[in-house]
């Protein structure tokens, strides 16, 4: 528990103090956000707001993770390092995307194919390594099986598992990217999911099959360190949200949104809660579905279901204030995470 507290506290302090420095540096270099012309008219006033702020909380989380291990003299684990690799690798892809937008002064960065290729390369390395590196008990960070509250069903094979992992990584990194459309929206929505994973990792540690073999115990390799990773990123994200909340003084950019999607997918895979993430991150899933529905329905009928997709912009065009949308969407995100945690703990409820 000490490691979790240290990681969260250090991440919070580093991000809280580091973000204003990043704002000044990015403003001086004129690394400002480009705004789509077809977007809501109220967004044009945000043009030039410093972007690529995700660099701050990614670095703060990495330093917080290291500080936690230095303070407790605990060695980093394979599971924790793999999830951090996934976060950092996808953050690097997002950084390239953001940098191209700024350099070419346009709202689109990497071409969709190049961006997807970068995500797939990072994801493939993660998928290859995550089913290897067993500990002394023979437990690897993941098994070639789909999971919900734990691994379920038979093995789907290394090829099937790799495809499934890539689908999760690309899907959730893009889902957080789509959610990042209003000030503070993605930060708050993913923060509650990270908080859930702090609780999940801690619970799995207390009920692991190595210490107490039982019907509901967990075969998770490094549950404590996964909770430390979640706490480090959560602390760093809260520090960033202080400056990213409406009206935002800095945006996370694709650097931050892809990194956050990656860490969520990585935590779900390593804690064996892959399908549960769909519920925990329900808001991001809903927003992604709104885009899929909008595009699909328009191609079939030539008509739109929403005034604009992603979903948050639909409510903007209906006249809702930005802060109203953000706060209400945060509440939806909290309800989704609460539902996911309820399902996670339900098997531990006393039987009548």
Automatic annotation (TrEMBL):
Mg(2+) binds at residues 177, 254. It is found in: Cell membrane; Membrane. Its cofactor is Mg(2+). NCBIfam families: mraY (TIGR00445). InterPro entries: Glycosyl_transferase_4, PNAcMuramoyl-5peptid_Trfase, PNAcMuramoyl-5peptid_Trfase_CS. One of its GO terms (cellular component) is plasma membrane. The keyword Transmembrane helix applies. GO terms for molecular function: metal ion binding; phospho-N-acetylmuramoyl-pentapeptide-transferase activity. It is a multi-pass membrane protein. This is Phospho-N-acetylmuramoyl-pentapeptide-transferase. It comes from the Bacteria. Pathway: Cell wall biogenesis; peptidoglycan biosynthesis. Keywords: Cell cycle, Cell division, Cell membrane, Cell shape, Cell wall biogenesis/degradation, Magnesium, Membrane, Metal-binding, Peptidoglycan synthesis, Transferase, Transmembrane, Transmembrane helix. CDD domains: GT_MraY. Belongs to the glycosyltransferase 4 family. MraY subfamily. PROSITE patterns: MRAY_1, MRAY_2. Signal peptide: none annotated. It comes from Nonomuraea jabiensis. PANTHER family: PHOSPHO-N-ACETYLMURAMOYL-PENTAPEPTIDE-TRANSFERASE (PTHR22926), PHOSPHO-N-ACETYLMURAMOYL-PENTAPEPTIDE-TRANSFERASE HOMOLOG (PTHR22926:SF5). The chain crosses the membrane at residues 6-27, 48-67, 73-96, 116-132, 152-172, 184-204, 224-243, 250-269, 275-298, 325-346. It holds the Pfam family MraY_sig1. Its EC number is 2.7.8.13. Catalyzes the initial step of the lipid cycle reactions in the biosynthesis of the cell wall peptidoglycan: transfers peptidoglycan precursor phospho-MurNAc-pentapeptide from UDP-MurNAc-pentapeptide onto the lipid carrier undecaprenyl phosphate, yielding undecaprenyl-pyrophosphoryl-MurNAc-pentapeptide, known as lipid I. It catalyses: UDP-N-acetyl-alpha-D-muramoyl-L-alanyl-gamma-D-glutamyl-meso-2,6-diaminopimeloyl-D-alanyl-D-alanine + di-trans,octa-cis-undecaprenyl phosphate = di-trans,octa-cis-undecaprenyl diphospho-N-acetyl-alpha-D-muramoyl-L-alanyl-D-glutamyl-meso-2,6-diaminopimeloyl-D-alanyl-D-alanine + UMP. GO terms for biological process: cell division; cell wall organization; peptidoglycan biosynthetic process; regulation of cell shape.
């Amino acid at each position: 528990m000490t490691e979790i507290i240290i990681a969260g506290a250090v991440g919070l302090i580093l991000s809280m103090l580091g973000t204003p420095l990043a704002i000044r540096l990015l403003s001086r270099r004129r690394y400002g956000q480009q705004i789509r012309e077809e977007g809501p008219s109220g967004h044009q006033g945000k043009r030039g707001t410093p972007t690529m702020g995700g660099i701050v909380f990614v670095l703060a989380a990495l330093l917080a993770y290291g500080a936690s291990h230095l303070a407790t003299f605990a060695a980093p684990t394979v599971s924790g390092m793999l999830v951090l690799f996934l976060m950092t690798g996808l953050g690097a892809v997002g950084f390239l995307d953001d940098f191209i937008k700024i350099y070419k002064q346009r709202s689109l960065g990497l071409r969709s194919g190049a961006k997807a290729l970068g995500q797939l390369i990072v994801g493939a390395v993660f998928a290859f390594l995550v089913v290897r590196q067993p500990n002394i008990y023979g437990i690897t960070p993941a098994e070639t099986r789909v999971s919900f509250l734990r691994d379920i069903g038979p093995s789907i094979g290394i090829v099937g598992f790799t495809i499934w992992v890539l689908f999760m990584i690309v899907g959730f990194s893009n889902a957080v990217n789509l959610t990042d459309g209003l000030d503070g929206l993605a930060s708050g929505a993913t923060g509650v999911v990270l908080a859930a994973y702090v609780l999940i990792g801690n619970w799995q540690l207390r009920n692991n099959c190595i210490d107490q073999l039982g019907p509901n115990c967990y075969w998770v390799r490094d549950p404590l360190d996964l909770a430390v990773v979640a706490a480090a990123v959560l602390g760093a994200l809260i520090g960033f949200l202080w400056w990213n909340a409406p009206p935002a003084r800095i945006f996370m950019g694709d650097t931050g949104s892809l990194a956050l999607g990656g860490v969520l997918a990585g935590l779900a895979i390593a804690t064996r809660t892959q399908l549960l993430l769909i519920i925990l991150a329900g808001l991001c899933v809903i927003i992604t579905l709104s885009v899929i529905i909008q595009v699909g329905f328009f191609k079939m009928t030539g008509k739109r279901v929403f005034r604009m997709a992603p979903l948050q912009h639909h409510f903007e065009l209906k006249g809702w204030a930005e802060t109203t949308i953000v706060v209400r969407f945060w509440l939806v995100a909290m309800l989704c995470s609460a539902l996911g945690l309820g399902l996670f703990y339900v098997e531990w409820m006393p039987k009548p």
